[in-house]
Amino acid sequence: MTLGWPLGAVWETWHQLVRMPVADRPTRAWGWVSRGADMLVQAWSNNVPPRNYVAYRLHDRGRRDRIARSLYEPELAVMMAHLNRRAGAVGDDVQDKARFAELCRAHGLPRIPTLAVFRNRSQCVPSSPYLPDAPDLWVKDLAGSRGSGAARWRREGAEYRHAWDGASCSPAALVAQWAQADCIVQPCLETHPSLAPLSDGSLVVFRIITGIDRAGCVTVVDAMAQLPYGGLAGRQIFAAVGEAGDLRSPRLRGRHPIADHPDTGAVLAGAVVPFWRDTIDLVARAHGSVPEFARFIFLGWDVAITDAGPLLIETNHGWGEFNHQLGDGVPLGDTALTRIALEHLEGGSRCG
Predict the structure, then answer these.
(1) Are the CB atoms for 137 and 115 separated by under 8 Å?
(2) Is 9 in contact with 15 (CB distance < 8 Å)?
(3) Inter-CA distances, 21 with 42, 65, 85, 234, Å
(4) pLDDT above 90 coverage of the chain, percent
(5) What are 322-341's pLDDT values in tens digits?
(6) Are the C-beta atoms of 212 and 340 separated by less than 8 Å?
(7) Are 209 and 122 in contact (CB under 8 A)?
(8) Which residues share a beta bridge with 212?
(9) Between β-strands 159-162 and 247-252, what pairing exists: parallel, antiparallel or unpaired?
(10) Closest Cα to residue 270, out of 244, 306, 302?
């Protein structure tokens, strides 16, 4: 769409009209024409991508009034890169998952344990030869994003079986395979029992965005739950999480409203997250107390909640904007993000 603008906007408008949630579709032919024309006007005149028009339901005039305060990925990425660069942030402190785990360990932050790390075709952790024996393993790329390289391996007798494609390997073969890529190996955890009905059996993950002001005070910008379904990697229901830890506005694939979990039938909206206050305190402490993390003005924390409490999985300096503005329909411009960003932009370089 970008390269072919404005013709690309025409194609994208048609594509989004076809994929529009049933509840939002016009009922008459003229309604379709009017909706498409409005999408094109917004794209050409106000730079609102058709994808965002449909996702944010801008055919609703009440919601459209707030679009000027929404942020799109390019402008958000540029702003965060500028702020982080001025603050002296080092990308590998958060993007390298082994480095992140080591910083958490050094500062006593609860996190998912590291079983092994492979880098540059060699094993870095542990110091002795590693042969897996845990019943359930999770592997992912050291510096990837959006689940790159993610795989779940379950122990079956003397071998491990891939949870999604059914392939099986001996422990030694797995180690040889991992040594060919930069990756981290962790135990696959069980989500808190009260959250189990909200998942297909995979770990429920919470993404919490925090911002740190010039005085070092950490504020939660937004929070959402990622609820797995369908038994395959990448299939998730997104739901906003309120201050009290209650799930709100669950959406399938980010845009289609859904009431019940497809696999378990559990009612999603209103479900309460256990240990929510502890979870918020944990990410605030991590962002504010670890110098390497505090150099990032905004961070997106991925947290697992087990029956023993919350555990940090990873954090990201590039956490996107799309699903965070869908949940309760609140633009990022109406959150603490604006105040914190302006404070840093107008206040010059950070002190200390």
Answers:
(1) yes
(2) no
(3) 19, 21, 40, 20
(4) 65
(5) 777 776 768 888 899 999 99
(6) yes
(7) no
(8) 218
(9) unpaired
(10) 244
